[in-house]
Write a structure and sequence with these properties.
The protein is 46% helix and 19% strand. The chain has four helices and five strands; from the N terminus they run αββαβββαα. It has one domain: 2-Layer Sandwich (Beta-Lactamase), CATH 3.30.450. The radius of gyration is 18 Å and the shape is globular. Strands 2-1-5-4-3 form a five-stranded antiparallel beta sheet, with helices on both faces. With 160 residues, it is of the alpha+beta class. Strand 1 and strand 2 form a beta hairpin. Helix 1 packs antiparallel against helix 3.
Length: 160
């Protein structure tokens, strides 16, 4: 099944950003971000100024895709959680609702146990937000920014 491009409204974005901001504090993390499965950064919080978030988002999505391939070879649905331990930084990656990827980067000031506990709570919140967002988008007559554009409008745009 092909996933359509995600539509994000300001209300849901603000809710997602609040979860990400809170997770940075509660998990004592350096950086938290959310990426869609295509590698597009949705939200970020923490010490992001010295990180190439675009590359990290893209590589994280690639990592999830590769791990998904390994899961299929092993007849698993998915490996929803990944953890990478480095000398100075650790990364906890969580697939949320098979829709988005939650990434938490932390160091020795935090622990894997604390991060996992806080990620579980944040994942539940994010799942509810994305479920509500999907219902909002799927509602007939929903306020789509493209609802009033017709095929004729598109033809006229490209015929000029």
């Amino acid at each position: 099944m092909v996933n359509p491009q995600m539509v994000m409204y300001e209300e849901e974005f603000n809710q997602i950003q609040a979860v990400v901001d809170r997770l940075v504090r509660e998990a004592n993390a350096k950086v938290v971000f959310i990426v869609d499965k295509n590698g597009q950064l949705i939200a970020a919080s923490g010490e992001v100024e010295n990180i190439d978030t675009t590359s990290l988002a893209s590589l994280t999505a690639g990592n999830i895709a590769a791990t998904g391939g390994i899961a299929k070879l092993l007849r698993e649905n998915e490996f929803a959680t990944q953890f990478h331990e480095g000398e100075k930084a650790n990364i906890h990656i969580q697939l949320v609702g098979n829709r988005v990827i939650l990434v938490v980067i932390f160091d020795s000031k935090s622990s894997l146990g604390l991060v996992r506990l806080r990620v579980r709570k944040a994942s539940d919140e994010l799942n509810r937000i994305f479920e509500a967002l999907l219902s909002k988008v799927a509602e007939p007559g929903s306020d789509s920014p493209f609802a009033e554009i017709t095929d004729e409008d598109i033809d006229n745009l490209f015929n000029d």
